[in-house]
């Protein structure tokens, strides 16, 4: 079990430090960011497991950031607002945040909400058998089939396909894929992912020629979509 990584986006240094201290105390790993314009790059690089996102920030604000993050990631997001009246408005905007916390908050409450989200995420059943169009993946016997043909994959290729098949059409960043397949992330592994994807594509193309089941999303990463019938 890897330590969950939480990104704290908050421009008030005192609050940011307090949150990080409490989260670390509760067993989480943390990183922080105070500038809204630097958040996207950090999210892509670090692939945090959860983001605490303050709304009023220098640079891009929390709402804009939440929308942008949702375009490529389902990472849980807890929005932090300074005004309780704002929560209704935020809910109406359907930003895709998982929870909202109002300032002033107790750090204990924040930690409790974070834990609650992780419990929820983990309670979701993880299907062992995935079917997307004519492609089926059975995690128990480690087998992928396209119609009636078996696809012979390496463990990394299998892992990548499994992650992407769980959420078809979702865009995954390279670092997120690395993190999920290998359980860790460090510089220089981006190209390894590209190689695995290239090989995976080649194997799929042998059975489904001319179909782009795994597409490249420029500047972000990869997306898996159902093959055409
Ligand atoms: Ca703020």
- Structural class estimated from helices and strands: alpha/beta
The overall pLDDT average reads: 88
Strand order in the sheet with the most strands: 2-1-3-4-5
Question: What shape does the CA trace take?
Answer: elongated
Summarize the structure.
This protein has helices spanning 13-25, 39-46, 62-70, 86-93, 107-123, 155-166, 174-182, 190-207, and strands at 5-9, 29-33, 50-54, 77-81, 99-102, 129-132, 135-138, 143-146, 149-151, 171-173, 214-217, 221-224. With 229 residues, it is an alpha/beta fold. The strands form three sheets. A five-stranded parallel sheet has the order 2-1-3-4-5, sandwiched between helices.
Explain this structure to me?
The protein has 229 residues and is α/β, with parallel strands linked by helices. Helix content is 41%, strand content 22%. It is built from 8 helices and 12 strands. It has a 5-stranded parallel sheet, sandwiched between helices. A 4-stranded antiparallel sheet has the order 6-7-8-9, with helices on one face. Helix 1 crosses helix 5 and helix 6 packs across helix 8. It is elongated, with a radius of gyration of 19 Å. It starts with a strand and ends in a 5-residue tail after the last strand. Calcium ion binds next to loops.
What is the topology?
Elements: E1 5-9, H1 13-25, E2 29-33, H2 39-46, E3 50-54, H3 62-70, E4 77-81, H4 86-93, E5 99-102, H5 107-123, E6 129-132, E7 135-138, E8 143-146, E9 149-151, H6 155-166, E10 171-173, H7 174-182, H8 190-207, E11 214-217, E12 221-224
Parallel strand pairs: 1-2, 1-3, 3-4, 4-5
Antiparallel strand pairs: 6-7, 7-8, 8-9, 10-12, 11-12
Helix pairs in contact: 1-5, 6-7, 6-8
Calcium ion (CA) is lined by residues 11-12, 54, 56-57.
